[in-house]
Design a protein that fits this description.
Mean pLDDT: 95
Oligomer: single chain
CATH architecture: Alpha-Beta Barrel
Number of domains: 1
Strand order of the largest sheet: 1-4-5-6-7-8-9
Radius of gyration: 19 Å
Helix content: 40-55%
CATH class: Alpha Beta
């Protein structure tokens, strides 16, 4: 490609008025997720509005624990809550392993519907939450500020935590394989809460299970490798280890410079990121300048996928997103028409 490709995490969502209309039509957030036709409609909305290079499936990271029967609900102003959290070995052992087609078939149907509707316009990205991130919600019972219950389990009952994470890793692998079979052309693993761990616990309880997923997918595909990107929010200290999992892309948030990321990762994986989502609150001229800064930080050559450092905020004006996408398309070609150089040269 003669320019830097661009898409956005959470690009289908509440900042778009057309999304809000469909969300109201669906009745609830999960009703929208469980409706393949409406899910496909909102997946395509940002692709139709902006000149993006990929679509990412509209769904939720908590579909797997929901399929395990934990009683997922969404409280206004509080986010997701589980009626039946899992906090001991008995509860973890009793968790059913979802049948991907029976219990999560609506996700696979949405993938197929999206792929058909896109008609080859841009590739479709499937996704999941990482085992550790899913576990935080399942143990805490919802969102948390300090993750005391889940992190406490790592110290007090590490073997119990490993049982939960192993079950989740194998389920996530099957879930992503199902998305591939349904038509997903690339994959993304969101390790939203990996950055709350210390280095030892991150390697043991988060990264090891993402590596297990990558290895499992490679084995199940029999040599055909669907590209997979791993994104740990707050994981800038571990980029080299993440790249060594065998993944194809490493997502970074805005707290790590693209220069540093490129020096750590080299050519082992592509780098995705990393504009601070808050930049999109600024006027278009500021957005243009910040896009230019990110491109300069990465430098010349391939291997950079422009994205935000986390999901887009609901309050962002759509025309600010358009300004960002246009800036990437305007400013990135010069970085691709010269021989590749290191970020520091």
């Amino acid at each position: 490609m003669d320019r830097t490709p661009v898409w956005l995490m959470r690009q289908a969502g509440r900042y778009l008025p057309e999304y809000r209309r469909v969300r109201e039509q669906a009745g609830s957030f999960m009703d929208l997720c469980r409706n393949p036709e409406l899910s496909a409609e909102v997946t395509l909305q940002p692709v139709e509005r902006f000149d993006l290079d990929a679509a990412i499936l509209f769904s939720d990271i908590l579909t797997i624990p929901d399929a395990m029967g934990l009683g997922l609900g969404f409280e206004a102003g509080e986010g997701p809550r589980f009626a039946r959290p899992v906090r001991d070995a008995h509860a973890i052992d009793a968790l059913p392993v979802p049948d991907i087609r029976r219990d999560l078939g609506y996700v696979m149907d949405a993938v197929s519907a999206c792929r058909a509707a896109l008609a080859g316009r841009v590739p479709l990205i499937g996704f999941t939450g990482s085992p550790w991130t899913l576990a935080t919600y399942m143990v805490e019972g919802g969102s948390s500020k300090n993750f005391s219950l889940c992190k406490g389990m790592l110290y007090e009952q590490p073997e119990v935590a490993h049982r939960l994470l192993a079950k989740l890793a194998d389920t996530v692998t099957a879930y992503l394989q199902g998305q591939i079979e349904a038509g997903a052309q690339a994959l993304m693993v969101f390790d939203t809460w990996g950055g709350v761990l210390d280095p030892i616990r991150y390697e043991e309880f988060s990264l090891a299970y993402m590596e297990r997923i990558v290895s499992g997918l490679r084995a199940s595909e029999g040599g055909r490798a669907t590209p997979i990107t791993l994104f740990t929010k707050g994981g800038g200290a571990w980029l080299q280890s993440i790249a060594e999992t065998g993944c194809d892309g490493v997502g970074i948030d805005w707290t790590t410079s693209l220069t540093d990321a490129r020096e750590q990762i080299g050519d082992r994986a592509a780098i995705q990121g990393n504009l601070d989502p808050c930049v999109l609150h600024a006027p278009p001229a500021v957005i243009h300048a910040e896009v230019g800064r990110c491109l300069r930080e990465y430098g010349a050559g391939p291997g950079h996928i422009f994205n935000l450092g986390h999901g887009i905020h609901p309050e962002i004006p759509p025309d600010h997103v358009d300004a960002m996408v246009r800036a990437v398309r305007e400013l990135s070609p010069p970085y691709h028409d010269v021989p590749a150089r290191t970020a520091s040269s």
